[in-house]
Amino acid sequence: MFSARQFLSTHIVHGLHFHNLRGDFFGGLTAAIVALPLALAFGVSSGAGAIAGLYGAIVVGLLAALFGGTPSQISGPTGPMTVVIGTVFAAMSASNTENGMAIAFTVVMLGGLFQILFGILRLGKYITLMPYTVISGFMSGIGVIIILIELGPFLGHPNSAGVIDSLNNLPQYLLNANPSAVGLGALTLAIVFGMPRRLNRILPSPLVALVVGTLFSVLFLPEAAIPRIGDIPTGWPSLQWPVLPFGQIKTVLGYGLMLGVLGAIDSLLTSLVADNITQTQHDSDRELIGQGIGNLVSGLCGGLPGAGATMRTVINVKAGGRTPISGMVHALVLLFILFGAGRLTEPIPHAVLAGILIKVGIDIIDWSFMKRAHRVSLTAAGLMYGVLFLTVFVDLITAVAVGVFIANLLTVKKLTAHQIESIKTLSDDDDGRLLNAEERYLLRQSRGKVLLFHLSGPMSFGAAKAISQQLSMIGRYEVLILDLTNVPQLGVTTSLAIENMVKEAKNQQRTVFIVGAYGKVKDRLERLQLLEWLPTQWWVQTRLEALRQSLDIVASQHPIIREALKR
Question: Which distant-in-sequence residues (6+ apart) come within 8 Å of 202 by Cβ?
Answer without folding.
Answer: none
